[in-house]
């Protein structure tokens, strides 16, 4: 199917801006020199000259509100303009990168420009080339992802990654010596596009930015895609989807989330449509994204607030509810968990091997690739996350300090919901490394329970009187049906894939239908329908890899489900009897990527009950405060399902504050 560039395409993920368009995927080079596609190498026999620049503006105005707060004002809400406002000189992305690495010896500092080791660039210059003076700059990372999504061609991503991967004969320095901070496309009369870049050395090198033309041209449909990227404008809903998706992808790297905010309402000194919070280094920062066309006048805002207030006041229908006080399910789960994961010689060997792997990583490297028993990278293998691995090496979880110990906070939450007559069900989601222990440590038995402390904490929750759905056995069983390259978890991402998600949802739906109040809940099985589709998702672990390895892991095509109510995609409302709240595991496939196919939609489909979803991309501990602000919505709730990654039980960067 040929893509129609005139259509709005901004409502899906950054890696694949459309989920319903079919496209061919080309293989990506696994290493060595930049692999440029044959089409990109073709040169026209005629002399090509630059075409006039299209009317586009991607620059933005920065309003500094405080040392840790900015508003970035974008005149025209194009995807190019918003991407540039998000990526360019973003303090959240730059945090912690100012200090010189301990092992840097300074070879770049003494090099001459004409001696710079960048064979992928032509005509290096200390000044901005005149050919791009009237052209709008873009950020290369999101555009390269769009090119791959639309054309299945990853060669632009590969060559630009190779620029950032140059190590100046100091491979032991993990941090990038330089980044491509701005890129300009120059469409030519022969239909090709030439690319010029600004390369900014790291602050600690003491070097100034330099410029050059990529030794690479794009051909085919690139010019048309590029033109639409620069000029096609979003509406307010598109822009919010863009912000939500960006926050979700940056979360593992930068601990980002969107603040609760009414689009167009006053925030600090502006009226942003979205406010992103990031906390990559222990100090929170905020950036608001504002578009003049999305602003609301004071009169319009007051009218909207009054309308929302009236709608909310009459919208939620309280239910006459009662708790299911039976302990049968909890005690049965407790008996199954007890003794199921003993600490023994095998688990000790696993922990030591995993700790040894992590000790070899540069301290700033937070992801690494699967290795075989001989220490060689597995082609198409998994990527692992340092924080997940740290969780597998945890000590006693409930022995942490009061700001990191989740046990009293879970008890506090249960007591609060009990007082409202609302059931609580906690669903810890095992990390990928816990399910695939045999892959992260070769030689480990595939059925070995490798996380005794994590399983012990599940036992403690149950012993404290908390209802816990233990999905670990179901996920361990699900991997027996893996069909490479499709697994129960995504290869390059921290989240589950469809087989793992379905295994968990089958168990969850079964548990919901067993509550004593289910028969009187008004469930209507069959009121939704389900369709299978696919989506392209860039793995959230790729950004954590060394620069030289990032291009080896392109976006994955994933099978997903999509839930419909009639002809419209499903979304639970305020009167839903179930609130599913938590971290990105509640949002992936639900509010980003192809949407309406995450745990909330699937649970509604399976149980016949409406499900409202509240997601904190910044981590599971933070979602409780959002629930506390939903006092009217809570009048309709019978059940709160608290679903979050189990890694945040151990040394969570988001502290477990009291309610």
Which short descriptors sum up this protein?
single chain, 20 helices, 16% strand, alpha+beta, 659 residues, 4-stranded antiparallel beta sheet, 5-stranded mixed beta sheet, 30% helix, globular
Mean pLDDT level: 89
Uncertain segments of ≥5 residues (pLDDT<50)? Answer: 1-45
Structural class: alpha+beta
Strand order of the largest sheet: 1-2-9-8-7
Distance N to C terminus = 51 Å
Sum this structure up briefly:
The protein has 659 residues and is α+β, with helices and mostly antiparallel strands.
Topology of this structure?
Blueprint (H helix, E strand, L loop, with lengths): L37 H4 L19 E6 L2 E5 L5 H9 L3 H4 L26 E5 L14 H12 L3 H10 L13 E10 L5 E9 L8 E9 L3 H10 L4 H19 L2 E2 L15 E5 L6 E6 L7 H18 L12 H10 L7 H15 L7 E3 L13 E3 H7 L13 H15 L2 E7 L2 H4 L1 H4 L11 H12 L8 H7 L19 H16 L15 E9 L18 E10 L2 E2 L8 E5 L1 H4 L11 H9 L3 E5 L7 H6 L10 E7 L14
Parallel strand pairs: 2-9, 12-18, 16-17, 16-18
Antiparallel strand pairs: 1-2, 3-6, 4-5, 5-6, 7-8, 8-9, 10-11, 13-14, 14-15
Helix pairs in contact: 4-5, 4-6, 9-15, 17-19
Descriptive notes:
The protein is built from 20 helices and 18 strands. The chain has 659 residues and is of the alpha+beta class. The strands form five sheets. It has a five-stranded mixed sheet with strand order 1-2-9-8-7, covered by helices on one side. A four-stranded antiparallel sheet has the order 3-6-5-4.
């Amino acid at each position: 199917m040929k893509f129609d560039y005139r259509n709005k395409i901004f409502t899906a993920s950054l890696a694949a801006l459309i989920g319903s368009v079919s496209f061919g995927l080309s293989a990506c080079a696994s290493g060595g020199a930049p692999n440029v596609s044959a089409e990109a190498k073709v040169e026209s026999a005629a002399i090509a000259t630059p075409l006039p620049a299209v009317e586009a503006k991607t620059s933005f105005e920065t309003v500094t509100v405080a040392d840790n707060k900015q508003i970035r004002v974008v005149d025209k809400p194009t995807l190019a303009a918003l991407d540039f406002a998000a990526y360019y000189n973003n303090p959240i992305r730059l945090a912690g990168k100012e200090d010189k690495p301990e092992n840097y010896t300074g070879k770049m500092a003494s090099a001459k420009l004409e001696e710079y080791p960048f064979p992928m660039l032509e005509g290096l210059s200390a000044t901005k080339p005149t050919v791009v003076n009237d052209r709008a700059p873009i950020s290369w990372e999101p555009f390269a992802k769009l090119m791959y999504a639309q054309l299945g061609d990853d060669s632009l991503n590969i060559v630009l990654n190779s620029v950032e991967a140059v190590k100046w004969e100091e491979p032991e320095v993990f941090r990038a010596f330089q980044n491509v901070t701005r890129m300009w496309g120059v469409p030519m009369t022969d239909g090709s596009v030439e690319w010029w870049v600004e390369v900014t050395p790291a602050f600690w090198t003491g070097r100034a930015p330099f410029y050059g033309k990529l030794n690479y041209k794009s051909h085919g449909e690139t010019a048309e895609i590029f033109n639409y990227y620069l000029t096609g404008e979003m509406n307010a809903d598109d822009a919010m989807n863009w912000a939500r998706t960006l926050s979700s992808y940056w979360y593992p790297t930068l601990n980002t989330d969107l603040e609760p905010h009414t689009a167009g309402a006053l925030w600090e000194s502006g009226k942003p449509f979205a406010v992103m919070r990031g906390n990559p280094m222990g100090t929170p920062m905020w950036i608001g994204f504002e578009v003049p066309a999305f602003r609301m006048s004071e009169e319009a805002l007051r009218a909207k607030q009054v309308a929302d207030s009236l709608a909310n006041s009459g919208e939620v229908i309280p239910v006459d509810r009662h708790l299911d006080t039976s302990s049968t399910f909890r005690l049965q789960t407790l008996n199954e968990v007890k003794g199921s994961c003993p600490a023994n010689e095998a688990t000790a060997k696993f922990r030591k091997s995993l700790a040894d792997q992590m000790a070899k990583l540069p301290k700033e490297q937070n992801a690494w690739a699967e290795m075989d028993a001989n220490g060689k990278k597995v082609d198409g293998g998994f990527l692992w996350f340092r924080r997940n691995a740290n969780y597998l090496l945890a000590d006693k979880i409930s022995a942490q300090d009061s700001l990191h110990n989740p046990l009293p906070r879970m008890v506090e939450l249960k007591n609060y919901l009990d007082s409202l007559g609302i059931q609580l069900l906690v669903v810890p989601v095992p990390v990928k490394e816990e399910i695939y222990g045999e892959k992260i440590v070769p030689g480990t038995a595939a059925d070995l329970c490798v996380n005794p402390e994590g399983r012990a904490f599940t036992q403690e929750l149950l012993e404290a009187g908390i209802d816990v759905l233990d999905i670990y056995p179901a996920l361990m069983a699900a991997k027996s049906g893996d069909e490479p390259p499709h697994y129960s978890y995504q290869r390059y991402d921290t989240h589950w894939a469809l087989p793992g998600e379905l295994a968990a949802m089958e168990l969850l739906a079964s548990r919901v239908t067993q509550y004593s109040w289910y028969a009187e809940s008004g469930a209507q099985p069959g009121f939704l329908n389900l369709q299978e589709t696919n989506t392209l998702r860039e793995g959230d672990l790729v950004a954590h890899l060394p620069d030289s390895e990032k291009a080896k892991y392109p976006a994955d095509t994933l099978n997903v489900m999509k839930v419909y109510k009639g002809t419209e995609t499903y979304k639970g409302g305020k009167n839903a009897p179930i609130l599913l709240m938590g971290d990105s595991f509640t949002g992936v496939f639900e509010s980003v990527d192809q949407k309406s196919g995450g745990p909330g939609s699937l649970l509604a489909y399976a149980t016949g009950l409406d499900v409202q979803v509240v997601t904190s991309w910044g981590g599971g501990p933070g979602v409780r405060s959002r629930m506390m602000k939903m006092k009217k919505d809570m009048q309709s709730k019978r059940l709160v399902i608290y679903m979050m990654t189990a890694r945040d039980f151990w040394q969570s960067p988001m502290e477990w504050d009291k309610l």
